[in-house]
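Hi D.,

Good news: the full-assembly prediction came through. Inputs first.
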Amino acid sequence: MIAIDHVSKQFTIRSGSSLIKRGKSQIIHAVQGVSMHAPNGRITGLLGPNGAGKTTTLRMLSGLFEPDAGSIKVDEIAVATHPRQALARMGVLGDAHGLYPRLSARENIIYFGRLQGMEVDAANQRAEYLARLLDMKSILDRRTEGFSQGERMKTALARALVHDPANIVLDEPTNGLDVLATRSLREALRHLRSPEGGGKCIVFSTHIMPEVEQLCEYVVVVAQGRSVAQGTVEELLTQAGESKFEDAFVRLAFGHAETGVAT
Amino acid sequence: MSTGLLKNVWLVLSKEITDALRDRRTLLRLMIPAVLMGPLLLLAVSALISSIEERADRREVLVVGIEHAPSLRNFLERQTFTIKPAPADYEVKLRNSTLLEPVVVISQHFERELVEGERPIIEIVSDSANQRASSGVRPLQRLLEGFNNERASITMALRGISTGLLRPVAFEERDLASVQARAARITAIIPMFIIMAVLYGALTSALDSTAGERERGSLEPLLMNPVQHIALVIGKWGAVAVLGMVVAALASISFIPAQWFLKNDSLQAMFQFGSWELVAFLLLQLPLAGGVGAVLMALAIQSKTYKEAQASSTLVITFVGLAPMVTLLNPGGDAPWYLWVPGLSQNTLMLLVLKGEPLTLANTGPSVLVGMLLVVGCLAYVARQMRMAVAR
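Then the structure:
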């Protein structure tokens, strides 16, 4: 279970620096009040346009930096104070998911399993299991150098799931994947959410509407750093008074911002 | 240190080394020069020394106008020297280094002036930019000095004066340098190559495990494992130091077979590079490999790309790699602060080893201390920066 409550984060960036002159510093409010509750056994979508603050929120969730305000808990463990315990309960496929090109897919997976505290044999068995689940057996012992986008994504996902975490966090995992790969990823996620797959808590960020409609049982809409609406797809349609989800999303995400009201 | 931390350090270390060893092309590019450098260098030095010795053995002098000086000719021939006429364009040839011997020029009225006591002038022509020619000047001077002495002695003997009056004091030379110390003058350049080997060995893996990891987007997932950041950093640093040491070891080992190929007997007798020298060389590199590895990682973690990291590491590589030049430019004038400068201290200590002088706590202590301080400071910095690097 993942609980994100009213987190906010601002960055100071310096732009237009050159050799002789320092650029002006500028404060960017990347996230200003995002809340999201994701229980076990449900796929929760984090839907928002580019630059809405999805990635920043998920990076705070995975302990890469602390929020300026608000709290994040994973299975009741506060990420800010106990990042390592929280990370042990999470499998994160982040925005950056580079592999080690000179190691095989299996070695990449086992390395992370070992860092998660697993023994070699256990990690190896998990690698075999995940290769079946994600349909990547044929590439398991190839070096990841020269992998296709889809193969790389599968390997990165298997690497994130090696320790069988109760909470799975995916940041735009379908970016750059073709139809077949997207479909098999969807299947895998449905299985992981189901009781046979372990009833995982899955958080899935995306900006693609059909994906949310097909996969997510619950959606949190994020725009301009705020969570502006949440509910099931049907509830959001009703809330926006639209019949098409895309229209509902535009109204919820941008209509709200124009009136300046935050939930 | 908890066992968990140690286990993670070991995990990261072994993964980084496996990763680096699989990068065959880069490894070969590092190792071939490291292994060939020693033998090639020694061969070049021995060829140079042989040619100098050969010149001494040949006993030849190049002279212009020997026909004006029959008495000098007589003297030279009695000294078993062969007199050869110098080429007409000897000045040009000396200047552009095609002629490698100094030339003796005798004036037209040499014999007459000599008899009349007018002190004729003999010119010894060479070019100080032409090193081989100018190194022949002193032996030639000594030879002509002999002619002077002989003439003076004969003249004085004819007048019944003891030649001892000309030399109220007698000199004798006594050289305190051991055989190895004399050879070290020639082999002084070797430590520089070992230091270079450490730097190049450490460089690629230091950049790859920090800036490279960041560039290919694998640093962020790595940090999402429940592992202490300091464990990641120590593991990576360990791999960097090990690779630096491996390349340094190859470079040092290559000197052992290299000495079998030394053409020159006297150099072969003087240059002794055995297992003690090898072990001492490697032990002396440890603080350098550790310290420089940590500094390179600290510089690289701030760079977004491998290329940017390479640019920022150039300064360190140049500084440490060229530090031994201080000793080369100022031979024998070792100052105590040399021992505190990374690169320069290793060079100074390796020269001591080559000279056969003992290593003590006092002379090795500073470099070890500096190395440890660099390691602790830089690794703490890298651990702190790693998370910020991802956040940027």
